[in-house]
Design a protein that fits this description.
heterodimer; A: alpha+beta; Cytochrome-c3 Hydrogenase, chain B; three-stranded antiparallel sheet; 15 helices; 46% helix; globular; B: alpha/beta; Beta Polymerase, domain 2; two-stranded parallel sheet; 7 strands; 28% strand
């Protein structure tokens, strides 16, 4: 480093020289939601440029998949987006089923839908709670959201014995059937959560401080969102009405009536609102699915070890954070030849420098919180 | 819209560019990738989104897969190109779709495919000091890794 030249600090006329400063945010930082490293270039308090460094959580899941049988890889998918493990399990199982051309029975379809939507509710609750926490609404919204999520987690715990990494879906079915009282528990939860959603609406959505922190912060235009390959709530908040469950229905989503919430400005508030509204829509789906739950045996009868037919399959599902895709290539062996995981957060974080350029550092934290990323699936 | 229509369109506009047609993908020649991608994005096919870019190591060649999505026609197109092991270079698509920037960096990091004219071709998941490409089939997993020599903290990365 050169020694500072004294003439640099001399005031020339009225022009005071200033220098840009590089600030490292992360990899250990409470509001980066994991080990994300942002290299911020600051002019005073304004972010001039940002470079995103990822890879601190890289566990080479794709390489591991090449050395495991199809069934053995299911627990690894839990560790991708660990807030929505059920959805990851489901996406992977659907991809393998597409490769093998397996049909599953009606009850399995319904149970999978209910579980996936419950996990979406749980995931969005964490997203909203931590977002409010990032904005400085210390503890209260977070604890409220985690209190509600706890009910879902306890149901899952009873179902499969895990609180975070469930490993519940199986190729061709699920691990266990619902216990007898599960339907009542879910119905009670829907009633409870609807009341609480109103509470969050009063607590946060139109709160003056919340509005002033989130409105018109980090505006994402729809064409930029599409250009970056973004999906999920981020894309919908930008005003693109696109939901895989509605537009290219997989499983049995075409049987349910629900809306797709869309934002208008694409700012942080819209992203929050879309997530909050999606909880309500998911509750609608769960309610209809629980009512129509058919009898049958959902426990899988597929062999633990099998050979995949040579070929490839790409299956994408609507995860809480966007479209999760599994691209499986098989050469006819017991293990996949290649398993590419196309994760939604990976695309959603790539846009961050565009969003936070020109904002204050505190607003950059707000934008990062509103993207609701999970590092586990970015780094895989 | 289906794959047969696209392949007909490609044969009309870029004669000789389609090398092979697979059940779920169109294999095109490496040289025509950029022109074809530009046409698919800007013409009526409206592939506005580059959903995913990935690669598969076929031992004698690397197979690149481009998944393009058209919101207008609700159609996902798989374009493939084959790269021989002695020439792992291909034009970047990051100037057409911004999503391609990071996706191509990932392919570079894990497979060692070099993207020409890429604005920022660095490793993305592995440390910068790495020399191996872990998703290649001939990757030999060592039992022990030597930590790279630390050169101290560099301001500005």
């Amino acid at each position: 480093m050169n020694s500072p030249n004294t003439t640099d600090f001399v005031q020339k006329g009225n022009e005071l020289r200033s220098e840009e400063m590089v600030v490292n945010m992360g990899p250990q930082h409470p509001s980066t939601h994991g080990v994300l490293y942002l290299e911020l270039r600051l002019d005073g308090e304004i972010v001039v440029d940002c470079r995103v460094h990822i890879g601190y959580l890289h566990r080479s899941c794709e390489k591991i998949a090449e050395n495991r049988t199809y069934t053995q890889f299911i627990p690894f998918t839990d560790r991708l987006d660990y807030l929505a493990s059920m959805n990851n399990n489901l996406g992977y199982c659907l991809a393998v089923e597409k490769l093998l051309n397996i049909q599953v029975n009606e009850r399995t379809q319904y149970i999978r839908t209910i579980i996936a939507e419950l996990n979406r509710v749980a995931s969005h609750l964490v997203g909203i709670g931590t977002f409010a926490q990032d904005l400085g609404a210390y503890a209260t919204p977070m604890f409220y959201c985690f209190r509600d999520r706890e009910q879902i987690v306890q149901l899952f715990d009873e179902l499969c014995g895990g609180r975070l990494t469930y490993n519940y879906m199986r190729i061709g079915g699920v691990q266990t059937d619902f216990p007898p009282h599960a339907v009542k528990v879910i119905k009670d939860f829907i009633k409870y959560e609807r009341k609480k959603l109103k509470e969050y609406m009063e607590l946060l959505t139109y709160n003056a401080i919340f509005l002033s922190r989130t409105k018109k912060i980090g505006i994402l235009k729809p064409e930029v969102a599409i250009d970056y390959g973004m999906t999920g709530p981020m894309l919908r908040a930008a005003g693109v009405k696109w939901d895989l469950r509605k537009d290219e229905p997989y499983m049995i989503y075409d049987r349910f009536k629900f809306d797709v919430p869309v934002g208008t400005n694409g700012d942080s508030w819209d992203r929050f609102k879309v997530r909050l509204d999606e909880i309500g829509e998911s509750l609608k789906i769960i309610e209809q699915a629980v009512e129509a739950l058919p009898p049958g045996n959902p426990v899988a009868k597929v062999n633990k070890v099998f050979k995949g037919p040579p070929g490839e399959a790409y299956m994408r599902t609507e995860n809480p954070r966007g479209e999760l895709g599994f691209y499986l290539v098989s050469d006819g062996g017991q293990k996949p030849y290649r398993n590419k995981i196309r994760s939604p957060s990976f695309s959603n974080i790539a846009v961050l420098p565009e969003l936070i350029r020109g904002l204050n550092v505190s607003d950059a934290v707000c934008v990062l919180g509103s993207t609701d990323i999970v590092m586990g699936e970015i780094d895989r | 819209m289906d794959q047969a229509q696209i392949s007909k369109l490609l044969n009309e506009q870029f004669p000789g560019s389609v090398a092979e047609e697979q059940p779920k993908a169109i294999v095109i020649k490496k040289e025509s990738l950029l022109a074809i991608a530009k046409m698919l994005r800007d013409s009526d096919t409206a592939f506005k989104s580059c959903h995913c870019i990935t690669a598969v190591d076929r031992k004698d060649k690397i197979e690149m897969i481009y998944m393009l999505y058209s919101f207008k026609h609700r159609f996902m197109l798989n374009l493939k190109i084959f790269l021989p092991m002695n020439d792992l270079t291909v034009e970047t698509l990051s100037l057409l779709w911004k999503s391609a920037n990071w996706l191509e960096r990932e392919v570079y990091d894990l497979f060692g495919v070099k993207f020409l004219n890429h604005p920022d071709l660095r490793r993305i998941l592995n440390p910068d000091e790495w020399t191996d490409f872990p998703l290649r089939k001939d990757f030999d997993r060592p039992d022990f890794y030597r930590l790279p020599q630390s050169e101290g903290l560099k301001a500005g990365g």
